[in-house]
């Protein structure tokens, strides 16, 4: 099975000029390269982006490693980004490993978009 059979990444450009990458499927050995390539394209754009992982059903260590590498690269290049994993099964491993304290996590795509576009969140969402 090729990585394209396991993972899909759909890009959505928002009016705030932030791109949202909606990821679905399993991020495992067979799809880790495709996931890493998608992250690299997000960084290469130089624009703020949101990685929506709510559709991810499994993430192996290579996927978590790619998230950390992306975080370091976005910091180095001063690119704003965020990860949405509020309903994904990967939120638990992020908490257990302590990556929740390091990576820019948001509970929902609207929360991430508001933070990255500079718009204040409505009081009920804060």
UniProtKB/TrEMBL annotation:
Pfam families (UniProt xref): STAS (PF01740)
SUPFAM superfamilies assigned to the protein according to its UniProt record, in alphabetical order: SpoIIaa-like (SSF52091)
Taxonomic superkingdom: Bacteria
Gene3D superfamilies: STAS domain
Domain annotation STAS: ranges: 18-116
GO molecular function per UniProt: anti-sigma factor antagonist activity
InterPro entries per the UniProt record, alphabetical: Anti-sigma_ant, STAS_dom, STAS_dom_sf
NCBIfam families named in the record: ant_ant_sig (TIGR00377)
The family this protein is said to belong to: Belongs to the anti-sigma-factor antagonist family.
Protein's name in the database: Anti-sigma factor antagonist
Organism: Kibdelosporangium aridum
Lineage of producing organism: Bacteria, Bacillati, Actinomycetota, Actinomycetes, Pseudonocardiales
